[in-house]
Amino acid sequence: VITQGRDYSVGILTGDGRLVAHGTVDITPHMGTFEFSVAAIMEDFDTLEPGNVYIVNDPHRAGTHTLDVRFVRPEDFEDEIVAGVGTTNIPVGITEAVLRNGFQGMLAGTMVLEDGNITIDSADDAKGGVFASEGVLLIQGLSPYALSEERPSKGGGGTSIYLYDEYAWAIRLQAWVKELYSDAATPTS
Fold first, then answer.
1. How many CB atoms lie within 10 A of CB 151?
2. Is residue 189 part of a domain?
3. 23 is in which domain, residue-wise?
4. What is the count of structural domains for the chain?
């Protein structure tokens, strides 16, 4: 019911509870409570321990109503605690392969590169990139689901079943860049 109704949201927060990234199909009231969820857990526990999963459903401190349950799972990225809210198990498949093998190449029409330097030659343009001191790449999809369509006019009647499967993936690196081209012509004034 949860996945078919799409009544769930996910996010990545800093260790002090600030929202860094969320999915593209999340429900706005859920996102507005992510930071309160982490704050409520931090009030109840001295520290957030990586690997633990904290569950909150107090509507007065961390949610919209008692049916909305928050799962908060802290992670340690380079000695910095980051709280993932709404995480789920990843079965063997495309997502697991991406996490195991890494990703580099085209993503949503943007070339993702690791490292690199600005190149200026005799041409009037410069190939370079925009580096971020901290970057989060989040690809968030839906759980597998099926849609069926009754087709009474096909072959004496039948049902077409469409299966969909997307994936969720997040990574934080300091080496990600967005490739850019700039005007490197010599200034005339």
1. 11
2. no
3. 1-88
4. 2
